[in-house]
């Protein structure tokens, strides 16, 4: 709008000047002195009128640009005294100054806000010029972690603590690196990373330092707690069926002692029961040894086992506790002589885990049923499936069931399935779960 009115005023003045110049030329061509003098004066006046009009605006613009050059946005141009077009120009200048001051004020607020945040975080931060060593920014956390005063140039650290300067500032830590830093009388583990960035022609280096000593100590403590939780969980899973079977055998022996005629003692049942307890106890011992060094295990004690026999051993062990909970169990093997090369003790541990999960899932169902089946997979090897008609697993959490310490049970430790997966990986196999909420779950062990 200001430019449009300026253009109209400029064209008007140019038009007036042209008219008087034409009149002056006409008067000169006629040689009439009475017309030449007035038209000459009017032409000079109109030229001065145009020149003054342009110069005033150029002076105002030049003055504004001079203020911008020296970043002086505090000037205020009068908006009441003067011609309309100059006042419009002044209003535009004042609007620019006001906008720039608001932007600067906002940047200053953001800077102070960022400054307060960086001072409050427990992460040490320093940015400095790589060429001159001048410190652009550092915070209190970095000075505390490195036990140094506030410095204006990193060369000060180089002269006072050359080893620290070399390890933290000179070495490349484009990837996070763990460094031991001696600060005061203590040595702490620090996580160091850095990045190089450019501002104009200057190159700066940003160093980020985080004290991870306390975090490592806390994680180590949590790891021990979780290890104890895992061991307790797996030991209880094995002890529960052993205890139940032992209780059944004890009851049978006591009844045979009290009423030998009515309840004769079946020695074969006793032998098989004691054999099951012996095998599971040995399996528990082997599990404890294997878990203790699970990360070092490169080979297993594999033997070729008939899965029918494997299921018989599991049935002897789990039958008393499952019958007590009125859960029907069906074992199926097709073909009957199907074999697999496995570590029997560890796979028994996996099956016990899966059966106990199915027992929990079937809680409250009158027609609770678990099917443990074995068949030949498409790859020619065996696959074992544990299927139940329990409550199933919600779709939104089924992807997390193998994550260590993730559990949908109120009292679950979240390590049973993750341990099953690790054992299957040691067998170079896979474990898969398919579940429909409200209908049941099928877990497959694919060798």
Structure description:
By secondary structure, the protein is α+β, with helices and mostly antiparallel strands. It has 3 domains: 2-109, no CATH class; 121-211, 2-Layer Sandwich (Beta-Lactamase); 218-446, Histidine kinase-like ATPase, C-terminal domain (Heat Shock Protein 90, 2-Layer Sandwich), CATH 3.30.565.10. Helix content is 55%, strand content 19%. The chain has 11 helices and 12 strands. It has a 5-stranded antiparallel β-sheet. A 5-stranded mixed β-sheet has the order 7-9-10-12-11. Helix 10 (344-361) packs antiparallel against helix 11. The radius of gyration is 45 Å and the shape is elongated. The two termini are 81 Å apart.
Distance between the termini: 81 Å
CATH class of the largest domain: Alpha Beta
CATH architecture group name of the largest domain? 2-Layer Sandwich
> Secondary-structure element order, as H and E?
HHHEEHHHEEEHHEHEEHEEHEE
Number of domains: 3
Shape: elongated
Strand composition percent: 15-25%
Largest sheet: 5 strands, antiparallel
Which bin fits the share of residues in helices?
Answer: 40-55%
CATH topology of the largest domain: Heat Shock Protein 90
Mean pLDDT across every amino acid position: 78
Give a short overview.
Helix content is 55%, strand content 19%.
Write the layout of secondary structure elements.
Blueprint: H1 2-30, H2 33-69, H3 84-120, E1 123-129, E2 135-138, H4 140-146, H5 155-160, H6 162-170, E3 177-183, E4 186-199, E5 202-211, H7 213-258, H8 267-292, E6 303-306, H9 307-324, E7 328-334, E8 339-342, H10 344-361, E9 369-376, E10 382-388, H11 416-426, E11 430-436, E12 440-446
Parallel strand pairs: 7-9
Antiparallel strand pairs: 1-2, 1-5, 3-4, 4-5, 6-8, 9-10, 10-12, 11-12
Helix pairs in contact: 1-2, 2-3, 7-8, 7-9, 8-9, 8-10, 9-10, 10-11
Catalytic activity: ATP + protein L-histidine = ADP + protein N-phospho-L-histidine
Organism: Sinomicrobium pectinilyticum
GO molecular function, one term: phosphorelay sensor kinase activity
